[in-house]
């Protein structure tokens, strides 16, 4: 049996979802707003987001709508 590993972007989705649930951000906030909340990890996540054609001005709800993170 092979264990399937979740895509790293799913980890970001969970973090962002948690921030929304905690009412720290809203689904309409821009992706760029999470930069200060991710601290030192932001550079990594920024590059990942850009690689998937996200703009830092896109609302976070668009990030949460992705169901499949195929490369």
Q: Which helices and strands, and how do they pair?
A:
Elements lengths: L7 H14 L13 H4 L3 H10 L8 H6 L6
Organism: Stanieria cyanosphaera (strain ATCC 29371 / PCC 7437)
InterPro entries: DUF4327
Protein name: DUF4327 domain-containing protein
Describe, in short, the structure shown.
With 71 residues, this protein is mostly helical.
Total helical elements? 4
Helix content: 40-55%
Helices and strands, in order, run as HHHH
Question: Biggest β-sheet: count, sense, barrel?
Answer: none
Radius of gyration based on Cα positions? 12 Å
Bin the strand percentage: under 5%
Give the low-confidence spans: none
Number of strands: 0
Coarse shape: globular
Structural class: mainly alpha
As for the number of domains, it is 1
Distance between termini?
23 Å
Structure overview:
The protein is mainly α and 71 residues long. It has one domain. Helices cover 48% and strands 0% of the residues. The protein contains 4 helices and no strands. The model has no long low-confidence stretch (mean pLDDT 90).
Descriptors:
71 residues; mainly alpha; globular
């Amino acid at each position: 049996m092979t264990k399937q590993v979740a895509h790293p972007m799913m980890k970001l989705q969970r973090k962002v979802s948690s921030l929304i649930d905690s009412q720290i951000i809203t689904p309409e906030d821009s992706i760029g707003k999470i930069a200060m909340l991710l601290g030192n990890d932001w550079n990594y996540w920024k590059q990942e987001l850009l690689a998937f054609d996200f703009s830092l001005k896109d609302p976070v709800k668009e990030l949460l709508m992705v169901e499949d993170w195929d490369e």
